[in-house]
Amino acid sequence: MIRLFPREDDFFALFKKQAATVHQGCELLGVMVRDYTDIEQKAKVLRDVEHQGDQITHEIIERLNRTFITPLEREDIHGLAGRLDDVLDSVEAIASRFVLLRIAQPTPQCIALVDIIDRAADEIVKAVDRLKELKTLVTFTIEINRLENEADAISRDVLADLFNGGHEVMDVLRWKEIYGRLEKTADQCEDIANIIESIVLKNS
Amino acid sequence: MIRLFPREDDFFALFKKQAATVHQGCELLGVMVRDYTDIEQKAKVLRDVEHQGDQITHEIIERLNRTFITPLEREDIHGLAGRLDDVLDSVEAIASRFVLLRIAQPTPQCIALVDIIDRAADEIVKAVDRLKELKTLVTFTIEINRLENEADAISRDVLADLFNGGHEVMDVLRWKEIYGRLEKTADQCEDIANIIESIVLKNS
Amino acid sequence: MIRLFPREDDFFALFKKQAATVHQGCELLGVMVRDYTDIEQKAKVLRDVEHQGDQITHEIIERLNRTFITPLEREDIHGLAGRLDDVLDSVEAIASRFVLLRIAQPTPQCIALVDIIDRAADEIVKAVDRLKELKTLVTFTIEINRLENEADAISRDVLADLFNGGHEVMDVLRWKEIYGRLEKTADQCEDIANIIESIVLKNS
Questions:
Q1: The model's pTM
Q2: What is the full DSSP assignment across B62-114?
């Protein structure tokens, strides 16, 4: 059924729900790396959260198909839902890689990168909360960029360490896989900052 | 010459032609991995198909420049043509990597991933066929997502296998190169599903 | 303060400044690989240029927030500024990798890829110069595609060489890191060609 009088709030409420699920996923990854026990079980819980996120994403797309007038441009709703889904997918993939690659112990730099992603998810939750008001979220973009620079500095230390000659080659490959995905996830958080900034610009 | 009365059908006909070429490229990669003989020759044929695809892409962009009123937004025509071209480029790059990396024999998981990309190309052909009617292709997106999940499960098995300690490091690098590109190509098929879904949403 | 009567020229002038900074970064990387001495110092200079680029990017975004009527769509200004920033980030990251990975000497292929990126930056400067006239820059896209094909051919040679069995595994990893980033940067230059082509199409 096509809704002629859509409740605009629905989309913003669904985005809040989706951002909260992304945040929950990031927190679970944080718990996993800080308390590195029962990791199969912890990866499984994150997988369930990721499935819940998928359902929210599908709900947003379905509602988009049923709704005649939308509070934001249709492709922006589609784009933001897709990018939030990407972050949750990435976080779940990282958790599963600790199991699949038989990582014995997360490094301090790895814990620091997960923490940065967790704080970026915090910022995303706050930005999605304020999306309805279409405020130019200057502090949000600055904070996400700051976190991205922090992640970049850690990634450089990590790279120098991995290539200093003191590691087994297969371990270098293992860690490049984990670190590469952590950096990509930090980038995806920055993409969300950019898409939200672009939505606000378009509608202001 | 600027056309004042464009034949709208032209763009849809060109997209069909381009999708068919993408599909042909995927099928040729399938033939290569299932019957792993004369691979230099098979990679060369795929390279020719990729060049044909390039020409169709250029034809779409040129026609876009000559046409005054377009049946879809100009940047969507540009975007879809570009993303279809990306898939064909990726498929050709994979075929050439089998030759360049001196891969002795494709693995069953590699054949399964090529098969998934082939089925995704099938779905893309069908979606492009129906693009003119601007129907919300719910089954299309569901099917592409299902294929993407299947590809993801295989990729996880592959990763666990590559890091189980039973492979030469250089072989691990070889296969990570091939598998990484196969996964990226599956993702690019999903991008096309998203762009088509977004075009339909924008115009519905 | 919101400007009611914006000077349209400002955005084009800022884009020219940003493109010039990107070009400067590419040139500095060229100097570094051709005269491979004092590389820490050269990487540091490039880092400073990258910070200058960041400031121009922020200036564009801030001006976007303060300006009521813009000469191009807001999200296109945002998108082009972001993509130009990406190229400069990548070029700086490559320079720092030579230091971090303790690369003894750049290869001829590496120098050739840097040269291609440098020529792509040349083309980008020219295209940004003409952006105000919104001309369909056919030669620009053709030249960028030609450069991308050249980069692709070199990357294939490099891959065959890296996997021919004559290199230490850790050196293969080092060079894959450097070459991967060079190829990604060439792709990002192509992305800019696409975004400029798309802006011109949208406004013509």
A1: 0.87
A2: HHHHHBSS-SS-HHHHHHHHHHHHHHHHHHHHHHHHHHHTT-SS--HHHHHHH
